[in-house]
Here is the input.
Amino acid sequence: MMGRGSWWIRVLATLGLAWLPWLESEFFRHELFNFVGRFHPLVLHFPIVIIGLATLFESLFGRYKDNRVRQIVSITFRLGLITALISVAAGYLLYINGDYAGRSMRLHFIGGCALAIVLIWADFYRSRYLRERQIKYRTWFRSLLYSALILVVFTGHHGGSVTHGADFVTKPLAEFAARKDLANTKALKNPASMLLFKDMILPAFQDKCISCHNEQKTKGGLDMSSYDQLLKGGKSGDPMLVSGEPDESVLYQRITLPADHDDYMPPEGKSPLSEVVVELIRWWIEEGGTAADTLGEGHPDMAWQQQIEDYIPSLAMQQYLASEARAARLKIAPKLRRLCFDLGLDVEPDLKSDSAYFVLSMRIPPRIITDETLSKVMSYRDVFSRVSLVSADITDEGLYYLGRMNNLKELILIKSCITGSGLAYLKGLSKLELLNLSHTDLTNEHILQIMSLPSLKNVYLFNAEVDENVRAAIDQSLDQTKVTFEEGPYY
Here is the structure.
């Protein structure tokens, strides 16, 4: 990339990389491109190491006039640039083919594109410096190189969150702090009242399965982070749970296959679920496999019941951490309520989430709620799981703020002022399950954007200006989403 003619190439590359996170091309949704994209985890480590080395070499030897030293620095830096571009290209192919979604994934991809852009222009200024020997070009090069190192950390952090979970780094510290206080806590429930799935099975999934099957990374289209998501199943369409029939349930089938079988889960390289957890899953499905099933009087087989009783103390840590997280969330409630009261909004703990999040709704009597009102609660955007703004003056611009509420599961905008042009802002809401747009001025063109919302289960479109053909297209495209042309819930 030498010479003045390369300037336009860099400009075009910059524009292309800046556009790439928002490019959704059907051309790249193909098995061959998906195969190429799967090399991204292999390639991505090269730019991380090489950019670190390039920064070190430049800091130590950048002032040396020895051509051999300069050549080493140049080769190292160019390798970093080339491998970064390859990594971004492979990452895009992996991203576009559907196994990943969510805020961390998007920030990881945007960070990778930004890193490639910074390296392109760092290479430009290094080339200018080597030709013209003007100190300002070296200053620009070094500034961009150090910026690239910061972007490596940012991008790597969010990539790690996608792969291992958002708390991968901090979890040992949280467990260490929790262990000191665990003896005095009352977090552990009465065993008879423990929910079989949420309290006893889900913690095992969090250790063994959810790093690959979560809201950010849905391998095979499967999210195991909650009961509702598990019921939705994966891309195959086979039922994960068949009430009363563990042998017909894909969940139980996969964990009881021979360890060398291609479909055995967890896959090779990960430790399997313990025998007691496998038996808990079998017994739970046999008993009905619902979210409300409790341990009750225990397993009918006394030998298994003894193993279950031995397993229960290990669950105390997860319950303690969940209790601490809930308590920390509730500490902000007084300030949040005061802010929302002044804005004409009501906020209450969401009982559907065990009070870990909040419900945001209109106060009675209602006040005028606008896009600007939403902008004023953005500092608390991650604590809302349900929002109901019936008859509010919320426009499509207001969907930008709602689209940043990353834990939102239900959004009710009945009789609001939206036309649907801002529905694209909701694409990052990986947990959104219910959307009520009844009595709004939706257009045929814009309503089709709901097809790109990854986790929707129920959509209400009563009295919306949507043609029959568009309704049919939506129904056919959204296999796991129920589109209802009824009014739906107000709260």
In short: The chain has three domains: 4-164, 178-320, 344-484. The first strand starts at residue 345 and ends at 349. Residues 344-484 form a domain with the Leucine-rich repeat, LRR (right-handed beta-alpha superhelix) fold (CATH 3.80.10.10). The beta strands are 345-349, 358-362, 384-388, 410-412, 434-436, 458-460, 482-484.
